[in-house]
Amino acid sequence: MITRCCALLISLICLCGAAEPLPQAHAHNDYEHPRPLLDALEQGFCSVEADIYLVDGQLLVAHNLKDVQPSRTLQSLYLDPLRQRVQANGGRVYPGGPAVTLLVDVKSEAVTTYAALDRVLRGYAEILTTYREGKTSPGAVSVIISGNRARTEPAAQPLRYAAIDGRMEDLKTDVSPALVPWISVNWALEFQWRWTGEMPAEVRTGLAQLTARVHAQGRQLRFWNTPDRPEVWRELRAAGVDWIGTDDPAGLAKFLKP
Using one digit for the tens of pLDDT, what is the confidence trace for 198-246? Predict the structure, then answer.
């Protein structure tokens, strides 16, 4: 259950007016901030990332298994507050705004964790993007599974409530964007340049070509393992990268705002 304090904070945010949505802003390891989800939403972020472990039937949010706490469930930190926001804001997380993505990074065993996640998500169907027989019905919140990703099980479901975070190898297949809408790339595995000095022309060209390739397949692109600095964000934005991740929500929000 949402604590009384958390519920009050959410209500105050909704009543005081939502931040302007920032469609490229992704809160990396969002749960490590003082107020998970709420800090990101106050800055206008449209994507947040939560690591989960399946422990005794509960989906617990933490970066490491040793840090899990029974009170910090995916429902209490993310799904319940998101549903309250959607109900308060006329069916959207931000009034009249775009869908918000909840990137769920699975740290425990893929198949059993997905089964538990699927059961939980069914209880929030009214706010979620759903996928039925290859067709997408957009909702206020889109759930994408990263980390230890079950592949066969979601693909076989006639109705599901989550999509899969893709990798570079998915660009070589004909997998549907309805199943794999994102491609997430470890920068260090794709490019040798390490963000020292001016970006070389060949790196800038390669980045633009990769972005175009992802977009041509109807998918979105996200990099991870990049430095958290404005000059990095500037290059990613200029290349048309869809999601810019950060551990500094206030800094990225300041950079992205007009």
Answer: 999 999 999 999 999 999 999 999 999 999 999 999 999 999 999 999 9
Q: What is the 3-state secondary structure (H, E, C) of 45-75?
A: EEEEEEEEEEECCEEEECCCHHHCCCCCEHH
231 in a structural domain: no
Residues 227 and 233: their CA atoms lie apart, in Å, by 9
* Count of CA atoms in the C-beta half-sphere (13 A) of 173: 11
Residue 149 covered by a domain:
yes
Q: How far is CA 137 from CA 154, 159, 253, in A?
A: 16, 11, 29
Question: How many structural domains compose the chain?
Answer: 1
170 dihedral zone (left: phi>0; alpha: psi -120 to 50; beta): alpha
Q: What residue has token string 């006639």? A: 158
User: Does the residue 208 lie in any domain?
Assistant: no
Give the three-class secondary structure for 12. Answer: helix
Q: Which of 222, 236, 228 is nearest to 252 (CA)?
A: 228
Q: Which amino acid is at 224?
A: W
User: What are the strands, taking DSSP E only, across 113-153?
Assistant: 130-132, 135-137, 141-147
> pLDDT tens across 54-64, in order?
999 999 999 99
